[in-house]
Amino acid sequence: PSRSGNQVSEYISSTFLDKQQEVEIPPAKDKDKEKERRKRPMSQISGVRKLPHGSSLAAAAIPRFGVRTDQEGLLAKELEDTNKWGLNVFKVAEYSGNRPLTVIMYSIFQERDLMKTFRIPVDTFITYMLTLEDHYHADVAYHNSIHAADVAQSTHVLLSTPALEAVFTDLEIMAAIFASAIHDVDHPGVSNQFLINTNSELALMYNDASVLENHHLAVGFKLLQEENCDIFQ
């Protein structure tokens, strides 16, 4: 038999195992408190904010393009390109009061008749889109609501190509466009690697795996639980 193996076993036993009796076990109540304290930051999805859109909209009061604007004519002109490559999303943002995502998603869902197909109340759809758009950061140079609107519109055009005409169901089309709208929500403007290297709360929450991608999805779905936001109810 190996002498070194026995020595290692004896060392572990004498150093650690025999001293277990000396360890003071905290009362169950204190342990429960500590567990609750540790769980608290992870029980909530960071970035989700309470916003006032929920009860402020009525279906009869929805503006033509989903948002109020004093440049409706110019906005209408830009949205004529909703079904084409090259829509000027920056002009849409300018003429919609910086609501490009809400306006373009509303236009796409109307164009495809998705609200009627899936019985989505118009006020609920607009409330969700306004809430979603508010969770994109305007001060982030690239991953903002203009980018989300651009991706959603590009996805809509791509899915309209003749080669894909009979490939996807209405549900799959809606899922793809919805995914495009939420795909970068609450993006902080830094990379996954930065979040991991700085031991950020998000990196800890998602165990360093696809940190931002998991967060965008979580926020997008969490917002469906806000007042009058569940478009899939």
TrEMBL record:
Sequence ranges assigned to domain PDEase in this UniProt record: 67-233
Comp. bias regions, Basic and acidic residues: 19-35
Transmembrane segments: none
InterPro entries, per database record: HD/PDEase_dom (IPR003607), PDEase (IPR023088), PDEase_catalytic_dom (IPR002073), PDEase_catalytic_dom_sf (IPR036971), PDEase_CS (IPR023174)
Active site, UniProt feature: 143
Nucleotidyltransferase as UniProt keyword: no
PROSITE patterns: PDEASE_I_1 (PS00126), PDEASE_I_2 (PS51845)
Keyword list, A-Z: Hydrolase, Metal-binding
Region (Disordered): 19-48
Binding positions for Zn(2+) 1 per the UniProt entry: 147, 183-184
A Pfam family reported for this protein in Swiss-Prot or TrEMBL: PDEase_I
Residues engaged in binding Zn(2+) 2: 184
Molecular-function GO term, any one: 3',5'-cyclic-nucleotide phosphodiesterase activity
GO terms for biological process, alphabetical: signal transduction
Entry-linked PANTHER family: CYCLIC NUCLEOTIDE PHOSPHODIESTERASE
Name of the protein described by the UniProt record: cAMP-specific 3',5'-cyclic phosphodiesterase 4D
